[in-house]
Amino acid sequence: MLRTDTLIIGGGLAGLAAARALEGRRSYLVAERENRPGGLASTVSKGGFLFDYSGHLLHLRWPRSTKLILDALGPNRLRLKRDARVYAHGRWTPFPFQANLSGMPDKVKAECVSGFLKAWNAGGGRGDGTEPFSRWTRRVFGEGISSHFMLPYNAKLWRYPLGRLTTEWCAPFVPMPTPEEVVEGAYGRRTEGMGYNTSFYYPKRGGIGALANALARGASGLRLGLEVERVDLKKGVAQVRHFGPVHFKRLINTSPLNDFVAMAADAPAAVRRAAASLRHNSVYVLNLGARGVRRDLHWAYFPGPEFPFYRAGIASNFSAALAPRGCASFYVEFATAGEALDLASAEKAAVKGLVACGLLDRASQVTERLWLRIPCAYVVYNRERAAALPVIDAWLKARRARSIGRYGAWKYSFMEESVKEGLEAADALPRS
Ligand SMILES: Cc1cc2nc3c(=O)[nH]c(=O)nc-3n(C[C@H](O)[C@H](O)[C@H](O)COP(=O)(O)OP(=O)(O)OC[C@H]3O[C@@H](n4cnc5c(N)ncnc54)[C@H](O)[C@@H]3O)c2cc1C
C-alpha cells in the first residue's frame, strides 16, 4: 500500500505545475493515466510530422507562471506575431471580425457597421455574464456582426443552443471594439492587434508537448500509466487501476469535474446531481500533412455553413520543425455535442473546404493524416453550470480537496491558467 502526502490526479499542465511547486517540499504522487505527460498539451508523432491536439499557443500574462513556462522551455522557444483571419462570404479578412470588416463585401460591411452603431447607441455594454449569448451578441454587436459571424461561428463551436449559453466566458476571448475601431476596421486601417492572443510563444522544436516534457523532468513524483478509478475523500484513499490503494492526506484533482465526482465514493447525492448537470462539447481534430503549400497564416475561423469545421490552422507556420522539409501541416477542428463524427466524410469535407478557401492548392498532395479526439473539449457555460459549481465547491472545501485546471475547475481557460492554478493549489496546501 502506498502512502503520499498529496495525490494529484492528472499530469497535464495543471498537475505538472502543482508537482513542480511541491518538489522537495512534501511527498506527492501525480497519477497520470496516459503514457505521456501533458494532457491536452501533448504532441503526437506520425510519418515525420508532429501533431498537437489542434493549435496550442502560449499566451502569457502572469509573472510566476510565465517564468515557470519560459524557464522550462529555455532557448527552445519562438515568439510569433499572430496572423489569424476569418473566411466568410468567399473572402478573407483579419481576425477579429468585428474590428476588421475591410475584407467583407460592401453590403455585409454596411450591415455590420450600421448594426454595431445602432447597438452602441442603444447602450451596448458587456453585461453581467448571465444574459443568453444570442441576445447578448445582438445587443452588443448588433444584427450584422451577429448574423455574419458571432451566431454561426459560436453555434458551430459550442454545439449548444445559443439562447441557453451564458456569456461569463466572453470577457477574455471576445474583443469589444469601439465605434471608431469598427469604422476604421471596415473602411480604413486594419485593427489586427486586438484580442488576448496578438502574439504568442511556441516551442521551436517538439510541438507543444515539449513544454510538458520539460516540466515533467522536474517532477519526480510523476507516474505515467496510473489511472485513478475511485476516490474516497473522507477516508483519504484512492484506488488506482492495476496498482491498488493509495493513501493521501490532500488531494488535487485536474481530471474533468463530472468524472471526478462520479468516481468519488463519498460524494453526497446533491453533489452527484450537480455534477451530472454539467455539459461539454467534443472536438475532433483532423491533422493533415501536405506537400506544395505556400500560405503563411497561422489559423482561420470559418463561420459559414458550407464549412463543417469551425477553425483550421497551419501548424508548420508556428514552427517549421513540425513538418518534414518541403511539407506543411494543417489542423482542422470539428465540434459535436458529444455524438461520434463520421470521420471519412468529415475528412472529405475538410480537404474540399481547405481547397475552396485556398489554404490548400488543388495540386497539393495530402501525404499524412491523423484524427485526434478530445471527448471533453469546451465546457458549456449554461445556467446549470452556474448553479452546480458552488454545490460541488462547498463539498470539496469541506473535504479539503481542490479541483483545478480547465476541466477540474470546469471553465474555458488556457494553458497558462492551468499552470497558474497548479502553482496556487500547491501553495494553498496546509503545512503538514
Ligand atoms: C481545441 C482546443 C484548443 C486549445 N487551444 C489552446 C491554445 O491555443 N492556447 C492555450 O493556452 N490553451 C488552449 N487550449 C486549452 C488547453 O488545452 C488547456 O487549458 C490545458 O492544456 C489544460 O490543462 P489541464 O492540466 O488543466 O487539463 P488536461 O490537459 O486535460 O490534463 C488532465 C490530465 O488528467 C489525466 N486524467 C484524467 N482522468 C484521470 C484519471 N482518472 N486518472 C489519472 N489521470 C487522469 C488526463 O489524461 C490528462 O493528462 C485549447 C483547448 C482545446 C480543447
SS strand fraction = 15-25%
What's the alpha carbon Rg, rounded to whole Å?
22 Å
The CATH homologous superfamily name of the largest domain equals: FAD/NAD(P)-binding domain
* CATH architecture call of the largest domain: 3-Layer(bba) Sandwich
Total number of β-strand segments?
Answer: 18
CATH names the topology of the largest domain as FAD/NAD(P)-binding domain
The average pLDDT is 95
Structure description:
- The chain is α/β, with parallel strands linked by helices and 432 residues long.
- It has 3 domains: 2-41 and 63-76 and 209-279 and 383-428, FAD/NAD(P)-binding domain (3-Layer(bba) Sandwich); 97-188, protoporphyrinogen ix oxidase, domain 3 (Orthogonal Bundle); 282-374.
- Helix content is 34%, strand content 23%.
- It has helices at 13-22, 63-73, 106-121, 133-158, 170-173, 179-187, 209-217, 257-262, 269-276, 343-357, 383-398, 405-408, 415-428; strands at 2-9, 28-32, 43-46, 49-52, 78-81, 84-88, 91-94, 199-202, 222-224, 228-232, 237-240, 244-253, 282-291, 299-301, 311-314, 327-336, 365-374, 401-403.
- Strands 1, 2, 9, 10, 11, 12 and 18 form a 7-stranded mixed beta sheet that branches. It has a 7-stranded mixed beta sheet with strand order 7-6-14-15-16-13-17.
- A hairpin with a 4-residue loop joins strand 10 and strand 11.
- Helix 3 crosses helix 4.
- It is globular and about 70 Å long.
- The relative contact order is 0.20.
- Residues 9-15, 31-34, 39-41, 54-57, 59, 227-228, 254-255, 283, 333, 374, 377, 405-407, 413-416, 418 line the site of flavin-adenine dinucleotide.
